[in-house]
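=== RUN LOG ===
request id: a7f3
mode: sequence -> structure
chains: 1
length: 104
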Amino acid sequence: MTQSVMHANADANTPSVPSVAHLLSAPLPQLLDEHSAEIIDSSIRDESFLGAVTKRRAGQVSIMLPAGRSGTERDTMARYLLGRLLGADITELPGATTTVMAGV
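=== RESULT ===
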């Protein structure tokens, strides 16, 4: 099964790029605060949908994650999507996962 991860970047004015070590070790609430980000439960019910991230022109970041997934999956996807949005040198997800990069 192919899984899709959508990633949208509204503009090129992103904050400094965090290190992968910081993305993986900082408490998630701290990361969200540092980058004006919030996690929103997505209404998408497709099991292959892992999440999406958008950044508004004003700088707010919204990370949409499927409701009902494990805390570990939601934490991992939030860190991954935020890292990709900010341009961190983060490895693509393994397996049959597709990351779609789209400008808004």
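=== NOTES ===
The CA atoms of residues 20 and 89 lie 7 Å apart.
DSSP finds three helices and five strands in the chain.
=== END ===
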